[in-house]
Design goal:
homodimer, 218 residues, Rossmann fold, eight-stranded mixed sheet, globular
């Protein structure tokens, strides 16, 4: 599977890129700067011990990818989409993993969104022919990035186009011990984004790092 | 521990009442009608095989309870509190387990609350000297009520008074294989209420019944 990362040089995309590449995915990091994309690719390839990941400018990354992960801090998500709106192609799927969250008085807080969730806000900016899927929101970036951690958890995939959700779930199944679950329409992102804040606060309160969700009884 | 149920004759309270009573809690079902409360107590005691649960009018139940579970359908929660506002005593804790949810087009939907969550709405009606805690929201009533099911999951406890959260967690620990986690301030109920809708929809989509949450990495 050809997997791209829009804004793929930060912590948000690192773990996913590493895990997809290690699982046989064809991974391309995109950036506004080709140099930065290639530097990140080199760094990740060293961790992988093999030149599996390539770096490109976002436009080229988009031309090379079936599934594109939007992996920028939440407040940069709209400009990131706008900057390459015309470069998306038909059939491509955009996956939003962002969580609008701030830290205040020692705890994480959800940044309430007028659209209901950041995913629903982004839906207003994504080209009509590109299905938007929200996924991987509830699993912290640093856990994905620590590849020695067995994930052993569920992720929740939502979006208004069933086939797009299924494609993203197929991609997620490439990653060992990670189970994707179909959470339905895009507005379920309201729940998923908030769950991340819960997990972060549980980590802080209990002095742990790895809080993530599993559905029991399944 | 003396545990009361405000509106304790419906499915919302049944499982909790049975499980607390079976675990040694002193359980009182409250209702507007003493007759109905006693009938429910008789029914539950038959299931328990022992006369552990009592039924009383809400006023008497309140006089007998340290922790009071508000176990009515969400849209009856405000009138239920208003009907016995003056009967709460100092030091008593009210636990809100309600989830504002409707079914539409074959799926569960969260009923958006102007206050943010039903728990935050109720906070406006609860007497100032009674700490309000939101808990047990993410575990479906029917799973609690099927006592042969090992819960093997986490519940999340939130509320603005730490001591009240701790007391409710202490109560929750009476129930085997259930782990209470401190989720912080009452506004985290926005997350917990929505998580229930996610669980219900996962059940429907995957034709299961028991979806409930566990935190992995803890």
């Amino acid at each position: 599977m050809r997997i791209g990362f829009l804004g793929g040089t930060g912590i948000e995309g690192k773990g996913l890129a590493l895990r997809f590449a290690a699982s046989g995915g064809s991974v391309v990091l995109g950036s506004r700067s080709e140099e930065r994309a290639q530097a990140a690719a080199r760094e990740y390839n060293e961790l992988l011990g093999s030149p599996l990941i390539r770096g490109m400018v976002n436009r080229e990354m988009l031309a090379a990818s079936e599934i594109v992960f939007l992996t920028v801090p939440y407040e940069h998500a709209v400009p990131a989409i706008e900057s390459c709106r015309s470069d998306f192609s038909n059939g491509q799927i955009l996956v939003d993993v962002t969580v609008p969250m701030v830290f205040r008085e020692g705890r994480a807080e959800y940044v309430e969104q007028e659209a209901g969730s950041n995913a629903e806000l982004l839906a207003k900016y994504v080209p009509k022919h590109v299905p938007l899927v929200a996924a991987f929101k509830t699993i912290p970036a640093h856990i994905l990035a620590e590849r020695e951690i067995e994930l052993n958890c569920d992720i929740f995939v939502c979006g208004d186009i069933k086939e797009a959700r299924e494609k993203v779930m197929e991609a997620a199944r490439m990653i060992p011990t990670l189970r994707p679950l179909d959470a339905g329409l895009l507005r379920m992102a309201r729940t998923l984004e908030r769950m991340t804040v819960l997990a972060v606060n549980l980590n802080r309160r209990y002095k742990k790092k790895g809080a993530r969700f599993r559905i029991e009884g399944f």
